[in-house]
């Protein structure tokens, strides 16, 4: 489980660019088994569609959540800014970006308990900072391209 956020127009365009191929795999896959090359090609398309920070951003609902590390909540802080269909408009994106840019990061005890055994506190902070930077870049991209966010929270 987690928060799935899409740049609406950019994701739809990217999906449309791959739609014919995805549809053909769906038809082939129901009738015959896909070859390894076809499976790899389909996997590459999905990797492109769901590349973190491109037209899609995902954050977990666990101790590794970048929003939770900022003492923010997808449900309490972001969802109320979305419209009834789950979209976040430009004003909401600006507010969200401001919240994220101003929030300090904290490594929770839960994250420390579940992080890789060879990680130190600094590794956890580096990971969370990387996720925060990716989220900031993603939100800025939405503003720069005048795209709204589709939020599945």
Tell me what you see in this structure:
The protein has 153 residues and is of the alpha+beta class. 59% of the residues lie in helices and 11% in strands. The protein contains seven helices and four strands, in the order βααβααβαααβ. It has helices at 8-31, 36-49, 66-69, 74-78, 90-102, 109-114, 121-144, and strands spanning 2-7, 56-60, 87-88, 149-152. Strands 2-1-4-3 form a four-stranded antiparallel beta sheet. The protein is globular. The termini are close together.
Summarize the structure.
By secondary structure, the protein is α+β, with helices and mostly antiparallel strands. It has helices at about 10-30, 35-50, 65-70, 75-80, 90-100, 110-115, 120-145; strands at about 1-5, 55-60, 85-90, 150.
Features:
4 strands, 153 residues, 7 helices, 4-stranded antiparallel beta sheet, alpha+beta
Low-confidence segments: none
Order of helices and strands: EHHEHHEHHHE
Compute the gyration radius: what is it?
A: 18 Å
Largest beta-sheet characterization: 4 strands, antiparallel
The whole-number mean of residue pLDDT values reads: 89
The span between the termini is 9 Å
Instruction: Give the strand order of the largest sheet, numbering strands 1, 2, ... along the chain.
Output: 2-1-4-3
Number of helices: 7
Shape: globular
Structural class: alpha+beta
Number of strand segments = 4
Helical residue percent band: 55-70%
Hey, roughly how much beta strand do the residues contain?
5-15%
């Amino acid at each position: 489980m987690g928060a799935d956020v899409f740049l609406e127009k950019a994701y739809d365009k990217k999906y449309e660019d791959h739609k014919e191929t995805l549809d053909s795999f769906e038809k082939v896959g129901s009738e015959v088994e896909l070859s390894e090359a076809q499976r790899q090609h389909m996997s590459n398309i999905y990797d492109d569609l769901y590349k973190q920070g491109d037209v899609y951003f995902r954050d977990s609902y666990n101790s590794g959540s970048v929003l939770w590390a900022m003492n923010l909540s997808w449900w309490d802080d972001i969802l109320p800014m979305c419209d009834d269909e789950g979209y976040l408009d430009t004003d909401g994106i600006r507010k969200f970006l401001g919240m994220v840019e101003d929030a300090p990061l904290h490594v929770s005890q839960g994250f420390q308990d579940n992080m890789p055994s060879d990680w130190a506190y600094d590794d956890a902070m580096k990971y969370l900072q990387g996720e925060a930077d990716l989220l900031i870049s993603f939100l800025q991209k939405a503003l720069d391209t005048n795209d709204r966010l589709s939020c599945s929270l």
